[in-house]
Amino acid sequence: MSEDAPPLARATLDRSAHRRTDPDWLAEAWERARVLVLDSTDGGRALVRGPAAPPELVLVGAGELPEVPRSVPMFLGVEPDGVPVFAVDSTLPELPDTRRAHLREVGHLLVDRDAGIFTTALALLNWHRRHGYSAATGQPTQVDEAGWSRVDPTGDRTWPRTDPAMIVLVHDGVAGPDGRCLLGNNATWPRVPGERRFSCLAGYVEPGESAEAAVLREVREEVGVAVEEIRYAASQAWPFPGSLMLGFLARADADAPIRVDPAEIAHARWFSRQEIGAALAGERVPVGGGDRLLLPPPSSIALFLVRHWLDDRA
CB-based burial of residue 313 (10 Å sphere; 0-12 exposed, 13-18 middle, 19+ buried)? Predict the structure, then answer.
């Protein structure tokens, strides 16, 4: 697995987009394909084989599906060995030594190939589930182009889109263990007794706005702090249900007062590299009220940015 890229920004498939409008090739490809089964009734979970590390994403042959899929086959691409890969929405097959898993749980553990397949399939599945009707005509739409568009009876066609969002690790620009980063606890996150999660600041890019302008605006709105030296770091899909997270690092004055927007942020504070390193090592870092620091989940780009800064690459 590559540690230089966010966990859900890894892939090995050739998407072979020119095949999406070739029904003869698609029909032949389906007969010899590897198929990822996602269960939309269970949050889009798939089967993985474990407990060996890393877990292995389970793909089956087209003839091994337990029932007629709820979706038409979605063509994801072609493997380096020439075998096509599809995804379907269906009941997960009963296979020995497998378990149901969500992308949030295992995305960071999968090899590059499996992470790319699972991320793409879930993003497509979630897009189809939200676009059963045309926004232009209001009429029902049908899947077309092997899962890569939907069309209504008038011919109005839509293609999958993702919502751009920025996420930023704000730091003070100081090297070494005393350097600090500013993290926030979102007001909408569920409360877990004894723990309080802190993460990078994030928000959607608004119409007519650049990603960098969104960084300036969101940080100012959420914690009242001005940032500078905004630097792009990396991006990854976040198909929950359909975002593209654009990751940045930015510098701020650690002595500037923090003024949180209580509708967005419940708590915000600066953490030293020493504290972040301790939390990542499993040590207890108190954050007040008897709670310990909980960092972003490992499949998120937020933790990738935190680690990026922790390694003093900011």
Answer: exposed
